[in-house]
Amino acid sequence: MHELIHIILDNYKEEIKVVEESNLNDFNNIENGISISRQYLQKLRICVRENEFVDQQNEIIFFKKHKPYIYSRLKFYAMLYNFLINRPAGTIKSQEKFIDSEISRLQESNRRNIDFIKYYREDSELLDEFYFVRGHDKISLVSDTSHFYTDAEFSTSHDNTIAQIMAYDLLISHYVEELSYLRDLSNGIPSKWNTLSNGEQLGWTASKTDLIELIYALQASGAIKSGTAGIKEMASACESMFDLKLGNVYRTFLEIRERKSDQTKFIDRLKATLLRRMQETDG
Is the CB of residue 35 less than 8 Å from the CB of residue 74? Predict the structure, then answer.
């Protein structure tokens, strides 16, 4: 079952990437994220129903890491959908106030669950047997009583809590980006580095993942500031230059590292297309 789960996760990451790199202020994109996440969560459910974990440790990893990875994104897109419905269409100030209140609400929810969040952030394993093995939950350790109404075959006492923490992290990150964009608008900060004299913009038309791969390659090669430029600094410059948001570049880089093949897919494509252009020119 271990291989089946990883196939499902890899396929999900590939498919959801299209949504992650799209405009998340568009209801259609968010609906697509919800649909894809629900579809793959159901695939995991069927996989668990039809197969057995080889041992308890594999079951713990599934409910602590694998299921929450997809479930958290389903929660994230569902909450983002609700956010867009309720977001005021008024002034920049009213939108900033609304987003600030949403961040405060999420942080207050986290404070009420601070002990388990500390357990999760520190990647502790002491209570994993009770938190992430089906049928092993202790009522004294359960803070979310909705667990008692969930599908016992496909849930443990805390996998939903892990997914919620991850979803809140994604949501807060998105809110911070939105606030940054609104404050730039409010301060009249232009984004014209990529505008030609004729008014045409030099937009980045490859994927955001490709751009992040290029940023890391340039940083590693020492081509910019002799390698002393930070990733965050370079990402910020690219965001301004191409008028886009790259999101969490460090998480994307981890996903690039985890590719089973073609780790440097975009860099390899650059080399191949350049060589082809040279050959065409020679001809």
Answer: no
